[in-house]
Write the structure tokens for this entry.
Amino acid sequence: MKCHSRNLLTLLLLTVFLLTPTTFAAAKKLIPMGESIGIQLELPFVYVAHDVLLPNGQWLKKGDIITEVNSEPINSVEKVEQNLSGNQLTFTIEQKSQPREIKLTNEQANNILPFLKDETDGIGTLTFIDPESNQYGALGHQIVDGVLNEPPEFTTGSIFLASIEQIKKSTPGQPGYKISVIDKDNIRLGNVKSNELYGIFGNWETNISESLREPIDIMQEDEMKLGKAELFTAIEGSEVEAFEIELTKIEENFLQFVVTDKELLEKTGGILQGMSGSPIIQNGKFVGAVTHMFVEQPSKGAAISVTEMLKKSPN
């Protein structure tokens, strides 16, 4: 999708939910979701999350990879801790693909542990579950680690139910956002099999029958009409609510809409960062998902049709 308006901010890209070319292509009904989820990707390496000035004047720079401690290969923070024995330790660091060594005392090494990470985590929106394949699509964009500035290689991934604790309202020129925390029960909803350009997706592991929503038909593009529709999303706790919107423009596979729901406008100012992927329903059928907001007019948003999403396939 090309955005020619300088005021159009991409919150998330497009949500695409194909694990293989046929996984969702034949889907006729999907369960619209809208829950806020926590996402955790476990990495096969350890990196430095913040710049750290060492006592000898050297720096550990944000994004440095720790590859060895005392010549022992390292692939987790736990492995680093296991190798902190002896008074003098040698850390092998890869900085911009160039290896170097630093010497640390045991105390100094323990002091840097809080700055080391071996996972990427964040909050996203669950878009739908395919009841036939038990697979889900979520988030609507590729996860890019904020420190590494690239999609991280990961070994395993999980999604968890998250609760909205606070909302930072959108105002013209200032996009708002959701502040979420992982649900206290910490129950894994599913795995993450792939982190692609168009979203994360994987296998749903909990009982689909527990969903409050039933599978609904996918709306074909020639059925879409200007006018009233609903947006499913969570703005308080973990409860998904339906909010009124109005479709104002339909152009092939892409839609524009305005939020007309007074409650949503009062609480959020319109569209928030983190709402992308929220399902849009019209006349009881799955139309598509939110993809963008207009920065200067946060009550306005853009979406993609679900039929177009189902044509896409991650490489």
About this structure: Residues 1-22 have pLDDT under 50 and may be disordered. The first helix runs from residue 77 to 82. The first strand starts at residue 8 and ends at 10. DSSP finds four helices and 24 strands in the chain.
